[in-house]
Specification:
heterodimer, A: alpha+beta, 7-stranded antiparallel sheet, 25% strand, disordered N terminus, B: alpha+beta, 5 helices, 7 strands
């Protein structure tokens, strides 16, 4: 390790360095994405330009040349003005053509180190190094093109910088940190096969990736679909009007349509899952967990165990049926700006694992946890009373009354089943909601048809909120919210006394143990 | 470690003797905060009412009866909302309390839906003093407390005397200096 450190510092990295010219490709791609993303604002300009070109066909060449020239100039300038420097335990980055940005990050403030390898870097062996900081300063640094080896070395050096930081906890803990060998003993914890990813795609909706991109074209798509069916001799608009059709026929059409839609959605979801998680590996070096995955852009996310805020064991109803679990390791949420679909910047997700694999991973991360063994205390029946009697019944009574008055009684055939479905949902949600505590952790169980388990160490709590409305006060019930760096979790409708105890214990643990949350 | 145990002797106490949030001694914010807000909100309401009257009874500009009717209705609605808001704020502002203990700071607010936020000082990322133009006139300030929970989970104690706010901020900062992390 020391020799590696020496290798980095002794080279002329202490001077301002330019990145490799291959970064121009990166900036070009980013520019194009930027254009596409802002197409709404550029649309007027494009329209005008298009009209001009139609009017004067011979100007398309100079215009195209001008656009290309602009593109080349912009990306070259972005590359030219990008410089970085590594000094003792600091990284500095100067970037920006017009709006100059100078970032100076000490290694100790870096919470996350990520390596991202876009597909066009792969043949050349380059990667992007992304650094995130914790806290509210929200600084983010991305060195856009580094050789993979060099990036790995920098990453190691940054992660090693944390070992020097004093951790004010048990002396025993401090000693064990020093003794841990900085070996390259990367232990493979989990891998996801293509079959797992397909299962994940089926059970989870990654469709938003595609739906987001398709949004502007929905209208055209609808038109296209109508025309398509017209060509087949089916007048779909006529089919879809149901003023004079028998109910069973309408029902059949609706069902078929729903199945087709679900199939399409599932296919997109599977594709999304494969793009995000292809070649997924989760491994561990000392106290760091490393996730690598990605089909087009290869992502590598490293998380130190101390950064872990909460473990989430998540199952949708479909996951329950297939007996698979999505395990999430959540970190601080402070840097939510750089959201790329599939990057999952702030959590490590292990998609669609089997229960025994899941338990092994949870035990690896939190050795003393009892997430699945401990008995959960439910929430008050008043949750049902409030939601059903005070909210659901009045709303539906009004709706039913309104539609009967207006004479559209056939809508009732839709509303009444809906009422029962919502009733079932509320009941299941009440049944699932539970909590438990032991010496180290707080456990919360939630869900409707699926089940989600949340587990976090008490000392990671950032803030507690005690909520009690007039109505809850009369019943001596309350809602507790625990705020962690990764987000908040609620336990509603529990006895007031228990709520106070939960909060008092959490505050006491945080304040007396003085353990750092990261 | 030894010094920690000497200064923090809570570790051997029974749970019934732990600090309890239920018994937290909280103090109200400055009364002038609420009264000033009332005046401002009432003025705004009256302003909207005046606009309505002006529109209805003025004779400078020709407006068709239809448009006038619609505009008048809208402004009445806005005035009514403003009045409701004034009433609500009058109730809400007097129900804001804060409590400072050695290790944490709490803030209680809410009329029907009461909530108490408690933040251990150890977990405070930073504190800021916020003063709007009205705050400056009446000598008040708001204390903004930032945790690592993100922008959604910061809370703000309004209506503090400037000196009080400054001293709380100073207390928090020196508490954090003595501990070096969080």
């Amino acid at each position: 390790m020391d020799s590696q450190q020496a290798a980095i510092s002794s080279s002329d990295v202490n001077q301002w360095q330019r990145i490799s010219p291959i970064a121009i490709v990166y900036f070009m791609v980013k520019f194009v994405y930027g254009l596409l993303g802002n197409v709404v604002y550029l649309a007027p300009a494009i329209l005008i330009g298009y009209k001009e070109v139609l009017a004067n066909p011979h100007i398309w060449l100079p215009v195209a040349l001008a656009v290309v020239l602009l593109l080349v100039l912009a990306t070259f300038l972005s590359f030219y003005f990008f410089q970085y420097r590594l000094t003792n335990d600091h990284i500095e980055i100067r970037s920006g053509v017009f709006a100059k940005k100078h970032i100076n990050l000490p290694f100790t403030r870096i919470q996350n180190v990520k390596l991202e390898q876009p597909i066009y870097y792969r043949p050349f062996g380059f990667t992007c190094l992304q650094l995130d900081t914790a806290g509210s300063a929200k600084q983010e640094a991305k060195v856009v093109a580094l050789k993979v080896n060099f990036a790995e070395q920098v990453k190691k050096q940054i992660l090693a910088a944390h070992k020097a930081k004093p951790i004010i906890s048990d002396e025993a803990e401090l000693q064990s940190e020093e003794l841990t060998p900085e070996a390259d003993n990367e232990i493979l914890l989990n891998q996801r096969s293509l079959k797992d990813l397909i299962i994940h795609g089926v059970t989870n909706n990654r469709t938003w990736i595609f739906l987001g991109a398709l949004g502007p074209f929905f209208d055209d798509i609808a038109n296209y679909v109508v025309l398509f069916f017209n060509d087949l001799g089916i007048d779909i608009e006529n089919l879809l009007t149901f003023a004079d059709k028998p109910w069973w026929q309408i029902g059949l059409y609706a069902l078929t349509l729903t199945f087709i839609c679900m199939l399409v959605v599932a296919l997109f979801s599977i594709a999304g899952s494969i793009i995000s998680f292809y070649g997924y590996t989760l491994s561990k070096v000392a106290d760091r967990y490393i996730r690598r995955s990605g089909l087009l852009t290869k992502h590598e996310v490293t998380m130190r165990l101390a950064r872990l805020q909460m473990v989430v064991r998540q199952q949708d109803w479909l996951d329950v049926l297939l007996n698979r679990i999505n395990l999430k390791f959540e970190q601080s949420n402070a840097n939510m700006q750089n959201i790329q679909p599939g990057a999952h910047n702030n959590k490590i997700i292990v998609p669609s694992v089997k229960p025994n694999e899941c338990q092994a991973l949870i035990d690896d991360v939190y050795p003393h946890n009892q997430m699945m063994d401990i008995s959960y205390q439910g929430i008050s029946k008043h949750f049902l009373i409030r939601n059903i009697i005070y909210i659901l019944l009045p709303v539906f009574s009004i709706l039913i009354g309104f539609f009967t008055m207006v004479g559209k009684t056939n809508v009732l055939a839709f509303i009444v089943p809906l009422f029962f479905v919502i009733l079932l949902i509320i009941f299941c949600r009440w049944l699932r909601w539970g909590f438990a505590v032991d010496d180290n952790f707080i456990y919360i169980r939630k869900g409707i048809f699926g089940v989600d388990y949340y587990c976090f160490p008490r000392y990671k709590v950032q803030q507690t909120i005690f909520k009690q409305s007039w109505f809850l006060q009369r019943k001596k019930l309350a809602t507790v919210r625990f705020v962690l760096a990764s987000g908040a979790q609620d336990i509603p409708f529990i006895p007031q006394k228990i709520a106070y105890n939960l909060i008092d214990d959490a505050l006491y643990e945080v304040e007396s143990s003085r353990k750092s949350w990261m | 470690m030894a010094t920690q145990q000497q200064t923090f002797s809570n570790q051997t106490l029974l749970s019934t003797e732990l600090p309890a949030i239920e018994k937290l001694a909280q103090q109200p914010i400055e009364a002038v905060y609420s009264s000033t807000n009332r005046i401002i909100n009432l003025s705004i309401t009256l302003f909207f009412v005046m606009i309505v009257l002006v529109i209805k009874y003025q004779s400078f500009i020709e407006i068709s009866a239809g448009t006038e009717g619609v505009v008048v209705k809208i402004v009445w609605a806005v005035a009514a909302l403003s009045l409701l808001f004034t009433f609500y704020k009058a109730l809400a502002d007097v129900r804001k309390f804060y409590g400072l203990r050695e290790q944490d700071i709490s803030f209680t607010s809410g009329v029907i839906f009461k909530k108490t936020v408690s933040q251990p000082i150890l977990r405070i990322q930073h504190v800021e003093l916020k003063r709007g133009p009205i705050d400056r006139k009446i000598g008040l300030a708001s204390l903004q407390v930032f945790s690592a929970g993100g922008a959604m989970h910061t809370f703000e104690i309004p209506g503090l005397k400037l000196d009080d706010a400054e001293s709380i901020r100073q207390f928090i900062l020196s508490h954090k200096d003595a501990n070096h992390h969080g």
